[in-house]
Model the fold of this input.
Amino acid sequence: MQNHTTPSRRRAVLIAATVAAVVTTGSGAAFGVTAANAATPATTQTAPASATPSTTTSGTTTSSSSTNGGTTTAATPSDGSDLAFTEPSTKTAPLALTATVGTPFSHTFHTTGGNGTVAYAIQDAPSSDYTVNVETGVLSGTPPTAGTFDFEVVALSGSTQVTEYVRLTVAAAPLAFTEPSSASSPLELTATAGTPFSHVFHVTGGTTTPTFALVAPAEKGLEVNLDGTLTSSITTAGVYSFRVTALSGSTQVDEYVRLTVRPAAPVGVLVQVTTGKPGDTAYLIEPNGTIEAFSGTGKSLGTVTSIPARQGSSLNVNGLAVDRYGNVTVPLTADGLQPATVTSSVASDQIVPTPANDSARVTFVHASQHRLTVTQDGVSNTFVVSVTPVATAAVATTATGTGATLAYTGADERGPIGWALGLLAAGGTLLAYRLRRRRS
Done:
């Protein structure tokens, strides 16, 4: 601690001119005191001849004593020269304080002695983020950067100024993502299949510039750049869970993410037609109208222009609205999938919806070219069934066998996965096969 006594002439100017509470940064300091701080001019005391010789005070610390019955009493300085900080420090042994980047902190300096009024200021402050209240001696601020900073806090009372040497150590803030998440409560993001998507991750704290990386699973079409930019070009609708990690110095933190990729707009209906009898030929109609035939074992038999049927026979018709990537666009609800609507160009055709199986059974009473249309989610697909006559009168028949039972498995995602599993369980393998092939 240093104790400076200002000469009488400068003392009067300093104290009388300073009246506002002002704090400055840099190499200087400012104080605010009231006019009451003006010191009393130096006086000369003349004592009787029999008393102790007179003592003259002039801006310096003086004291007098008298002996009375062996007891010595020290006089209290009247010019505030006994001013001192309560936390001693020197330039080589400064007062140690600590803080954290981004976290407000404060420290109150106290003094003893003085003439009753003390003003405080900061000298050589690390930045304008640090201030000292001129009246209370409270040092406060929110550190913007980490490091160790040396500066001084000075106190003035009367003509006396004392200095507190301070060393402030500012620690880096803990590394953390700005969007909190956990394994049980991940950050929710949403994208659309085939539409470019990006999201920028940010962190606070850390000791160095952070770098980012994607933690498994490494889904095709999903990337995270070193600067924290997540990009997606995924075309398969579904829910993807993963982690993004940020590294700063030796510290690593994770962001838990759940990305929901929704289907794009529907472009058509993918239709499956079967007799319901295991081993019979089945047909798959693409959204563009192409008809492909498959054997009972799932082997492709090539494309055809129409589906053959006999008068009086029946066919099971199933359909799903899909986007350009083969994603099913109709959401699955607790009640299942909204069945596609099947209509015919021939009024006598008997169309019986089977909601439990998400299909319709069409019976052809008359022989002719029948144009069936399957509609779902605002799009449709039309194909031709060529019905040939039989020698005897047409008799409506009911197909035996397992049929195309399309009960849902309880999957809670958009997309054909749950429904396709139901198709496989019921023997309706073609639609599931094609959906998977289109999405691969």
